[in-house]
């Protein structure tokens, strides 16, 4: 997550699709970001659609996130924009698409430009869910943490090389109501490029390949990204 809020009068529509080779699971998300009314405050929402191959081979809507971000710092190549999200219980917990409980998530993204060609992004966050359910109906309060860092190399104004490292440490509800710690870790190399138009429209497609390491060793995915950004009145 980059730490730049949307500028005044500009809206962004973001789509992402990740397919995991080993499990054949996939997740699609649609995010829309709005300045309110300028870059200092941003509102957004994220709508996920998930497919779980095991055990039910089912697809459906996941838990929708409603997000607020505050642009606390944006100067001298440094940006900081803490985010607070409410995760709504819109996914079917019986199919593993959601938790049937409201969650609260915080994330702190920090972006630092090291030079005209190199930018880094740093993230740390946490999620708390009160009474989240597993597919059988057992429930418990759960906490999760996420962290990440990325290095972006601007080979040109419109083409970027990217390398990310991300991980999570989350509690997962078990059928007997107990909780199990589940950790993930991935290295994610990728590229993206921008097409700019006189109308102010910018289209940014990207592709990356998350590769599991440590607790996620052996997992490989493909991640597709497509962003549309344009002015509005």
Write a structural description.
There is one protein chain. The chain is built from no helices and 17 strands. The protein has 233 residues and is an all-beta fold. It has a single domain, classed as Beta Barrel (Porin), CATH 2.40.160.40. A 12-stranded antiparallel β-barrel has the order 1-2-3-5-8-9-10-11-12-13-15-17. The two termini are 26 Å apart. The mean pLDDT is 98.
Shape: globular
**Fraction of residues in H or I helices:** under 10%
- Order of H and E elements: EEEEEEEEEEEEEEEEE
Radius of gyration, rounded? 18 Å
CATH class bucket: Mainly Beta
* Count of helical stretches: 0
How many strands in all? Answer: 17
- CATH homologous superfamily assignment: monomeric porin ompg
- Assess the beta-strand content as a share of residues: over 45%
- CATH-derived topology: Porin
Low-confidence stretches: none
Placed side by side, the strands forming the largest sheet appear as 1-2-3-5-8-9-10-11-12-13-15-17
- Assembly type: single chain
Number of domains: 1
Task: For this entry, give a set of tags.
single chain; 233 residues; mainly beta; Porin; twelve-stranded antiparallel β-barrel; 0% helix; 65% strand
Condensed summary:
The chain has 233 residues and is an all-beta fold.
